[in-house]
Specification:
about 25% helix; four-stranded antiparallel beta sheet; 13 helices; alpha/beta; about 15% strand
């Protein structure tokens, strides 16, 4: 066991655990969690610190969400407001600022930033953006350790990398991506980290992102349980073709049979249960090796998964299934902070970087738009913000481009390309079943949120606001051309 020297014992260690495509309600302690779902290790961690049940991905798809998390900047600030990749040269990164502050920084798993292979401030990384990528560390490990040299061994199950179909993986548990990530994290802690420095460890898991292929034990656990059906709002339109009419398994609009949806949800919950047990492995190592007394943990996901709710699948939307993510911070006991804190403060991925820098005692760059969340753990009453803004350019359909606002109780959604608004009371209606924008007093209810959106978008170069009014049809593309020299990517 590696012994810590004085330098590391005086400064807190930090572990950031991120999953991919995990819904905010898919945490056992969440008030809206499925009864069948088991996440005991994550639940325990969440109850030892502060859990944010209004945690959101400001641009809910992989690339922009990860830019937001790693830069501490809102999507409009870092220039990427949709799912189109390009080379990125940010003015600062979470790992880079922590490295400057004297931290040994290490990533294992998914980074999903471009250009691929750039360290983005990490001292070292074992990069694996997907379990089916033949050009990364996980594939090399499968080849070297398990003799798997066929093309795309991680796709030997035959499932679509973005699909709703589910089945058990063809791999053993100890050959899976999540198991590998946690094993490499433990190896870093045990053998590779510098004991004279505090460490920043980012364990970035690909699960429960499709393909939905959990280990057989977990799949069998959930396929034999009752899973909840999708929720369908009074505003939702079923415009998907029936499955037997040729719909792709990766279609963002779904019309599945009850059995098909049960298989999908069973596999998805099983994948999260497996992730939970892997986090349990990591925590047992931390506790048994004396690291828990000086280690902070932040857990979140890059975005959620619609999972059939409102006839939709995948992500990129503002609805709870897609945009809300699990989000909690667990301090060491010696920090003397309150535990089992549940907050309705609207927070986002842009808050991860300033929070972790605050924990480390490192300066927060002025360009960060996010806020430190430590005041919530300290019991301070000052709000983090009054409202959180998010957006996503149309991904599967250009007309789906939207902006959204979330406060402690309500969510407002404005579609930038069509005449459509939603207003949901998340306190009374967490599943977004009843659209208040359809009710008789809608104009009165919508007015303050429209005005708040006007103030946020007023200076945007696309022209979302004209004559002090939200204007339908302004260009809403994946990149904002005026910022940081980014290439302009129109919708394709």
């Amino acid at each position: 066991m590696m012994q810590d020297m004085n330098a590391s014992s005086q400064r807190p260690n930090i572990i950031l655990v991120t999953t991919d495509q995990q819904r905010g309600d898919c945490l056992g302690v969440d008030e809206n969690a499925p009864e069948c779902l088991q996440t005991p290790h994550l639940d325990e961690l969440a109850c030892q610190g502060a859990r944010f049940r209004r945690g959101y991905s400001e641009c809910p798809s992989c690339l922009p969400a990860r830019r937001t998390l790693m830069s501490g900047m809102a999507p409009a600030a870092h220039g990427m407001v949709g799912m189109r990749g390009s080379a990125w040269n940010p003015p600062h990164t979470l790992a880079g600022e922590l490295a400057k502050a004297g931290y040994h920084t290490f990533l294992v798993g998914k980074l999903h930033l471009q250009p691929r292979g750039k360290l983005f401030g990490f001292n070292h990384q074992l990069l694996s953006d997907a379990p089916y990528d033949v050009n990364d560390e996980y594939y090399r490990w499968l080849s070297r350790t398990h003799g798997m040299t066929d093309y795309w061994p991680g796709l030997g199950h035959g499932q679509d990398p973005n699909g709703w179909d589910a089945r058990p993986t063809h791999l053993r548990e100890d050959q899976t991506h999540s198991y590998w990530c946690v094993s490499q994290a433990i190896e870093f802690l045990q053998y590779q980290r510098d004991p004279t420095q505090p460490f920043f460890l980012n364990v970035s898991l690909f699960d429960p992102h499709p393909p939905i292929v959990p280990p057989a034990f977990y799949y069998e656990r959930y396929i034999n349980r009752e899973t909840p059906p999708p929720v369908i709002g009074n505003w939702a339109v079923n415009d998907a073709p029936p499955r037997r009419k040729g719909m792709s398994t990766s279609s963002p609009r779904v019309h599945l049979t009850e059995q098909q949806m049960h298989c999908t949800r069973a596999g998805y919950y099983a994948s999260i249960n497996f992730v939970d047990d892997q986090v349990g492995r990591l925590m047992r190592y931390i506790i048994r090796n004396g690291l828990s007394d000086n280690t902070w943990i932040l857990f979140t996901s890059d975005h959620g998964e619609m999972l059939g709710d409102h006839y939709r699948y995948r992500k990129c939307l503002a609805y709870e299934g897609s945009a809300r993510v699990p989000f909690f911070i667990t301090p060491p006991k010696k920090a003397g902070l309150a535990n089992n804190v549940v907050s309705d403060e609207p927070v986002g991925l842009q808050d991860v970087m300033p929070t972790l820098l605050d924990i480390a005692g490192a300066p927060i760059p002025e360009a960060c738009t996010g806020r430190s969340l430590l005041p919530v753990l300290r019991g301070e009453s000052t709000p983090i913000r009054s409202v959180l803004h998010g957006e996503h350019a149309g991904q599967y359909d250009y007309a789906d481009g939207h902006h959204f606002l979330v406060d402690k109780r309500y969510k407002y959604i404005w579609y930038s390309q069509r005449q459509c608004e939603h207003l949901f009371d998340l306190q009374e209606d967490p599943n977004e079943l009843h659209d208040l924008a359809l009710e008789g007093d809608a104009e009165t209810r919508l007015a303050p949120y429209r005005q708040a959106m006007v103030e946020i978008l007023r200076s945007r170069p696309e022209g979302f606001v004209k004559d002090d009014t939200l204007t339908i049809g302004a260009p809403h593309h994946c990149h904002i051309p005026d910022l940081h020299g980014d290439r302009f990517y129109p919708y394709l």
